[in-house]
Request: fold
Amino acid sequence: MPAIIRCRILFSGLLSKNIKIKIYRTVILPAVLYGCETWLLTLREECRLRVFENRVLRRIFRPKKNKVTGEWRKLYNEELTDLYSTPNIIWLRKSRRMRWAGCVALMGERRGAYRVSVWKPEGKKPPVKPRHRWKDNIKMDMQEVGWGEKGQD
Reply:
């Protein structure tokens, strides 16, 4: 039922685009990104988040009418990013994860989150390529924004 209500709100002609954007930022985004600080997402999952965001933005900004032919068409992704000038959902997730990593780094050694982040398993590694750890994803995010060096640990 809530998905139907949300959908009707975003399609409603009674609300302005600014109100719909505020609803998206204050209600929908926090619900979708809850706990994203600890997520380990693949590129496919990041793409799905981006598709979700584009669908919501298309509902907010509505189709555009072509002036020459008079036909309605969906907005292109580039048009959506121009209209919605705030950072996209992937950037928000990465910034939240880096902020949480900073909090974990400042925690004392007695805190569980700190111990888990610095823990190194003992024993033999499996012969297959290991999956990325949370710490590895933080390093990649820092390299993407230009905060970290490749050789740092």
Remarks:
- The longest strand covers residues 64-65.
- The chain has a mean pLDDT of 80.
- The helical segments are 2-11, 17-32, 43-61, 77-83, 89-106, 112-118, 134-145.
- The chain has two domains: 2-87, 95-145.
